[in-house]
Amino acid sequence: MSKAKFSSSLSEKEIEKNFEGVDLFSSVMSGLEEALAYEKGTARAATYARKRSLPDVNVAATRKCLNLTQKSFAYVLGVSTRTVEAWETGKSNHSPTARNLIYLISQDHTLVAKLQDR
Length: 118
Prior knowledge:
Helix content: 55-70%
Distance between the termini: 47 Å
């Protein structure tokens, strides 16, 4: 059997880090159990939502690490300054999309300049 080949912009260590704490066996078993329940008719397809593990982000720490004000960070993210303030004080939670964007920015600071230039 030939070994599958793929290419990635991530290093091998970065890929390994992405899978830290992930129980692949349990994830595969859960998916198989869901598929079996659907096949047996004990579950409907509409009940399935893709289960995703979202990265943890600290909005204030990320913003401060980038040396941005709340106003400039809000501009980069495409939200209001009050929204960033609410996230930082815990008055509201960021959406999964915002969380992913903040995570990506925290991992690659060059994205800030690209988003500021839009």
